[in-house]
Amino acid sequence: MTELTQARTEERIREEAKKALASGEVRAVVGWCATRFDDRTRPFFAETAEECDLLVWNPYCINGTAKFALDDRYPDQKLALILRGCDSRAVNRMLRDKQLKRENLYLIGVVCDGKENPICEECQHKTPLVYDVLIGEPAKEQIYPERFRKIEEFEKLSPDERYAYWAAQYDKCIHCYACRNACPACNCIECYADQYRVGWQGKAADREQNQIYGLTRAFHVGDRCIECGECERVCPMHLPIMRQTRKMLKDINELFGSYEGGLSEEETPALGGFRLDDPDEFM
Amino acid sequence: MIISKLNLNKALQILNESAQVFVPAFEVIEDRAAKKSIREKKFLPYREDLEVELEGPNTVKPPKDILFPNVEKLYQYKAAGEDSYIRETLPEETPKILFGIRPCDMRSIKSMDKVFFTKNYVDSYYARRREYVTIVAIGCTETDRTCFCDSMGIDPNTAPGADVMMNRIEGEEAYLLHAQTEKGEALLKNLESLEGPSENVKAIRTDCTLKIRKIPDLDRKLAEMFEHPIWDKVTKGCIGCGTCTFVCPTCYCFDIDNENYGTEGCKYRCWDSCMFSDYTRMAGGANPRPTKKERLRNRYMHKLSYFNERYGETLCVGCGRCIANCPSHLDISEFIEKSSAVDPKAEVYTESIRAAQGKEA
Ligand code: SF4
Ligand code: SF4
Ligand code: SF4
Ligand code: SF4
Q1: I want to staple A62 with a disulfide (CB 3.0 to 4.6 A). Which of A24, A117, A171, B220 is the partner?
Q2: If you average pLDDT over residues A180-205, what whole number do you get?
Q3: Greater confidence, A271 or A100?
Q4: Nearest-CA distance from A36 to chain B in Å?
């Protein structure tokens, strides 16, 4: 996208945000604002027309916006979200999981141009899949042929090599839960890991508890992952977390046929439903 | 004393003979599937094949866990009739050397000392580790874009409280070391054989990259701003993770839990974060800090006001780690500027363009 259309898109975002607030139905518009560093933006809630002028659109708008809708599950007024393709799939994810109500959202879709985020190279849906108003011309969907390549490479390693790799990774984990908190598929009202009194999950950041956390989370989100890459982006210790859900998705694709998460509000996640013709040979 | 860079490894070897030395170095994990290696700079136990980097940017994680480990066993017990016991599990009496910590991290250890040693209580676990640690601090030669310690009253070239202070010499591949305590003198004695010539040398001086506008009495101003509308605004983008806490050199909160195997078990403590929902959750489920607004407010207040009230200094040392690592790119230095400038009695708070860009508060 050229500089001009980037500026024009930003202008349109601000216009739509102001319109949404002026309608009286929307309490805030979630987008991105500038920070002191030119190559960073931050999630921002515009609550007045003045603040709408702080919304920006540039290659550094990388944080997901959708999950902020969960901060208030029973809102009096709508929340408007600026949505890229991945954010729209995150919305579908949470609608499908019955964590959000569509009528509580006002969705300002923006056709994305790809951001300064490695995951964007792998993106197959740059045009939002759900929206109330769309900014930009819908882009053609792309196929990313390398989707499972790293998983295939990883599968070639021996179980011991794979264990050693993950053990080294989880020894680095600081147990901060950033991966969970950023993930739109981690949308439970109360995470199992926060139920300390039940004792599913210890808080200690040691190999044992870190690995239990990683494994449990991967299984909880594996079939609902929308491949937005937020978990991996936010990890301060750079764990390749998405490789876990990608592995689950690869298996799901092989066992149940072509599948991507968050494409619609109706989909049934492979592990969340049951069909009589399920390939359940393991049972 | 002057030690040439070429002799650095030798110095570390000598020190490593009588103590366990920790140095900033790169840990490498090979990722064969992605055909790349992942490198992380952290404090590691010294080995000859380590890729040590004393200068360059600071480590992502502070050296805090050497004194205050993430998980620390407190006592062991057994409940089995006559065989029952409770046994304290104090850390081993192993001398350690923390080699190459930065002035901000040294200041943070001094703050932790206040927490664990003063106000009529000595934490025996921390005290044991602290007693056996000798600290060699190094003046910064390169600062990150998120470094603002000198705005917080810390000099990136000196480290009061460190046993040895070490500075890079201008125009030379060598370091100037001087002892600041008895422990430090003993350490340098060990290295005498490596001493280089010292004529007219001058230590490099460095300045922080990020200069921020902080009013001197921000702690007292914030104490009056508990209900200020600024909190609503600046905390909205937070996702409530523990990243800022766990990379912060001065966050010292811990939780206590136990691990039981049949009739035996142990009590341990592990780092906790005031950003987590269960930090203030009561047994019955009520939570006085129900949302990230109350939680982040607590974090900022603790760093910038509560600690001043109790210990007479600001707890944030300006290391910039939470700024560099926050997934949402929240920035405590920006908050310091905004809260320094804002009207403490204001009833509404609206972001302005320049404030949002961090250009002017
Ligand atoms: S890529 Fe990561 S953050 Fe995104 S939906 Fe999948 S598991 Fe969650
Ligand atoms: S974000 Fe990274 S360090 Fe934090 S809990 Fe997840 S895997 Fe561990
Ligand atoms: S300020 Fe940033 S690092 Fe800290 S809890 Fe919030 S999102 Fe996580
Ligand atoms: S609050 Fe942030 S900048 Fe201040 S000492 Fe902690 S990590 Fe460093």
Answers
A1: A117
A2: 91
A3: A100
A4: 4
Interface list for B 34-73 with A (CB within 8 A) = 34-35, 38, 40, 60-61, 70-71
| A153 in the same domain as A108 | no
> Considering chain A, what percentage of its residues have pLDDT values greater than 70?
97
| Angle of CA points A200, A205, A209, to nearest 5° | 35
In the reported structure, the alpha carbon of residue B297 is separated from the centroid of ligand 4 by a whole-number distance in angstroms of 14
Ligand 1: lining residues by beta carbon, under 6 Å = A 182-185, 221, 225-231, 242, 245
What tens digit of pLDDT does each residue of B53-62 get? 999 999 999 9
Do residues A110 and A158 share a domain? no
Tens digit of pLDDT for each residue in B12-43?
999 999 999 999 999 988 888 778 888 889 99
**ipTM of the predicted structure?**
0.94
Atom of ligand 2 nearest to the CA of A210: 8
Q: Do A176 and B241 touch (CB under 8 A)?
A: yes
What residue numbers bound the domain in which A184 lies? 149-256
Q: Which of A33, A67, A182 sits opposite B356 (nearest CB)?
A: A33
- Residue B177, token pair as written in the block: 């070391």
The domain spans of chain B are 2-354
Is residue A7 domain-shared with residue A69, that is, in the same domain?
Answer: yes
What does the block give as tokens for B201? Answer: 């040398």
Residue B135 three-state SS: strand
CB contact under 8 A, A202 and B247: no
Q: Which of B71, B13, B38, B130 is nearest to B257 (CA)?
A: B71
Interchain CB distance below 8 Å, A176 and B245: yes
CA–CA gap between residue B203 and residue B175 (Å, rounded): 8
Within this chain, do residues A76 and A161 fall inside the same structural domain, yes or no?
Answer: no
Same-domain pairing of A32 and A121: yes
- Candidates B37, B44, B351: best to mutate against A (most CBs of A within 10 A) is B351
Type of residue found at B326: C
The residue-averaged pLDDT of B185-207 equals: 90
- Altogether, the residues listed in chain B come to a count of 361
**Count of domains observed in chain A:** 2
Q: Which pLDDT band, with edges at 50, 70 and 90, does A166 fall under? A: very high
Note the pTM of the prediction, 2 decimals.
Answer: 0.94
Count of CA atoms in the C-beta half-sphere (13 A) of A228: 35
Q: What angle do CA A52, A58, A63 make, to 5 degrees?
A: 80
| Tokens 């007479």 sit on residue | B312
Q: A161 and A122 in one domain? A: no
**Beta carbons of B71 and A205 less than 8 Å apart:** yes
- Average pLDDT, rounded, for chain A: 93
pLDDT, averaged across chain B: 94
- Judged against a pLDDT cut of 50, whether residue A51 lies above it is answered with yes
